[in-house]
Design a protein that fits this description.
about 150 residues; alpha+beta; GMP Synthetase, Chain A, domain 3; Membrane-bound Lytic Murein Transglycosylase D, Chain A; two-stranded antiparallel ribbon
Length: about 150
């Protein structure tokens, strides 16, 4: 599963029908806006199309995770213009950089357990929480199937 693929039956339940999905997903991202301007989200058949602009590739990564970690979403298509990136292919490549890994939370995981795995130190969990504060509201409340960013050294 890459950055753009998600588990359909896992995540925040934001909408009751497809007609309201795009609006609800847009509102969800805007409420904790990681830095996307003119954001719109369109939804059809489990797929979200994000459109907007930013000067920060990390903001685009977080917007993808926020949209994807919504119940009913299986894929996120990114049409976010990033300042200093000329081509869409540059943006797509930058969304999956070498210094960030995407991790799907498993049953029994905690942020400290994940930190111990990646950083060899469970007390580094605030680093993971900080990198995902738009996706994770409470470091003690994560759920299996949720996808998060892991900043690497």
């Amino acid at each position: 599963m890459g950055l753009f693929d998600f588990a359909k039956d896992i995540g925040n339940k934001l909408f009751n029908n497809d007609a309201e999905a795009g609006q609800k997903i847009s509102e969800h991202i805007e409420a904790n806006n990681p830095g996307i301007e003119n954001l719109t989200a369109a939804y059809a058949d489990g797929k979200v199309n994000l459109v907007g602009s930013t000067d920060n590739i990390e903001a685009a990564q977080k917007a993808v995770l926020m949209a994807g970690n919504v119940k009913g979403v299986t894929e996120v298509e990114v049409n976010i213009a990033v300042t200093d990136m000329e081509a869409e292919s540059d943006v797509i490549a930058a969304l999956e950089p070498e210094d960030v890994e995407y991790y799907i939370i498993q049953s029994g995981d905690s942020l400290s357990k994940i930190a111990k795995h990646y950083y060899k130190n469970a007390m580094e969990y605030p680093r993971i929480f900080a990198a995902n504060k738009e996706v994770i509201k409470d470091p003690d409340l994560i759920y299996p199937g949720q996808k998060i960013r892991i900043p690497l050294d």
